[in-house]
Write a structure and sequence with these properties.
Layout lengths: L8 E2 L8 E2 L4 E2 L22 E5 L5 E3 L6 E4 L7 E6 L5 E6 L3 E6 L5 E6 L4 E6 L5 E6 L4 E5 L8 E3 L8 E5 L4 E5 L3 E6 L5 E6 L6 E5 L4 E6 L2 E6 L5 E6 L4 E6 L5 E6 L3 E6 L5 E6 L5 E6 L5 E6 L4 E5 L31 E3 L3 E4 L8
Antiparallel strand pairs: 1-2, 3-29, 4-5, 4-31, 5-30, 7-8, 8-9, 9-10, 11-12, 12-13, 13-14, 15-16, 16-17, 17-18, 19-20, 20-21, 21-22, 23-24, 24-25, 25-26, 27-28, 28-29
Length: 359
């Protein structure tokens, strides 16, 4: 069986070998050079993906096919973080040029530039798109009122080193942030720290799942799940290699993770059993995220590619066409639905967009 004419791959797993249909590779991110490695991918409610690239040109792509839609031009340095708002009408980016930018995601126009004192690593919209949260190397969280662009942002201090990831949670009533080997929970109204978790090493990724208020963390070989409301632990798994990112399927049946050994791992969420593992990238994987509908997941790697993987192998979806022996596949027209788009932007990220995602 072939999918869009692509050659099938064999899974490398503790279980009997299976056939995995190859993932489309998104090469808007130039070859595998240090200046163009993908480290983060995003998945929002309408399945737009946004990946981050070191040469500073965020790209919008079709979520189910990876087709290029447009590029945001304006940053003068590597783009480290990016996000889309709830209805995918606006995008925000965080960059090494000491700025965060807000964009019109439909026209591609730059709407505003928010100057910072150091490299900006992370951005996140509130659900109503009225506020933008930023964090970066100056150790401060900033909250910008996008309806008052001239107003000074509110600032929250407490981290002792650069902030890698910051996210709104609990209906925008609270804020989560990492790193300095901690994850901290803040109250939005009072801007006071509610609770913090300390680790013996840096937190490599952080993702927020609104359904169930679950926080997904990775550090070292550990994939950990905590309550986003209290930071209390739920469960954790140990992987055979250092893990840089993990994503929980929308139905919470299983999760995928990737890291330094170039492999992707799939685990049963209830039992922690490793279901399969396989290679496709030629460099460390820096981010993995499921699409909002759970039909596929994206992985971004230091090899300069962002890859899309089918969750249920052999199912017709997006670029994947299930063709029976003797049948000849007919090309299908690309989808025009805004519900299946992907935004790719930044330097070191392949980050998933499903209303709040990762570090």
């Amino acid at each position: 069986m072939m999918v869009n004419g692509h050659r099938a791959e064999t899974l490398r797993s503790p279980r009997p070998a299976q056939t995995r249909y190859p993932r489309p590779t998104l090469n808007g991110h130039a070859a595998k050079t240090q200046s163009s490695r993908c480290q983060s991918a995003l998945n929002i409610p309408h399945a737009k993906i946004r990946s981050n690239i070191h040469y500073g040109k965020p790209m919008l792509r079709q979520g189910d096919t990876g087709d290029w839609i447009g590029t945001f031009l304006g940053h003068k340095g590597a783009v480290w973080g990016a996000t889309l708002n709830q209805d995918a009408t606006k995008a925000a980016t965080a960059a090494a040029d000491f700025t965060a930018k807000v964009w019109d995601a439909v026209s591609g126009d730059e709407l505003m530039t928010l100057a910072h004192k150091h490299i900006v690593k992370t951005v996140d919209f509130t659900q109503d798109s009225n506020y933008l949260l930023t964090g970066g190397q100056d150790k401060l969280l900033r909250i910008y009122d996008l309806n008052k662009p001239e107003a000074e942002p509110k600032e929250i201090g407490g981290h002792t080193s650069g902030i890698k990831k910051a996210l709104w949670c609990s209906g925008d009533k609270q804020i989560l942030s990492a790193d300095d080997k901690t994850v901290r929970l803040w109250d939005h109204a009072s801007m006071a720290e509610v609770k913090s978790l300390s680790f013996s090493m840096s937190v490599s990724s952080m993702a927020y799942i609104p359904e169930g208020e679950i926080l997904v963390l990775t550090y070292g070989r550990t994939i950990a799940f905590h309550s986003a409301l209290s930071l209390d632990p739920i469960k954790s798994f140990e992987a055979p290699a250092t893990i840089n990112s993990a994503s929980l399927h929308p139905e919470k049946e299983f999760l995928v993770a990737g890291g330094e050994d170039f492999k992707l791992y799939k685990y049963d969420y209830s039992s922690g059993e490793e279901l399969e593992s396989y290679k496709g990238h030629f460099g460390p994987i820096h981010c993995v995220r499921f699409s909002p509908d759970g039909e596929l997941y994206a992985s971004g790697s230091e090899d300069g590619t962002l890859r899309l993987w089918q969750t249920v192998v052999g199912k017709t979806y997006g670029l994947w066409k299930c063709v029976l022996p003797g049948e000849c596949p007919r090309p299908s027209a690309p989808s025009s639905s805004s519900a299946s788009r992907v935004l790719s932007v930044t330097p070191a990220c392949v980050h998933a967009l499903g209303r709040r995602s990762t570090a």
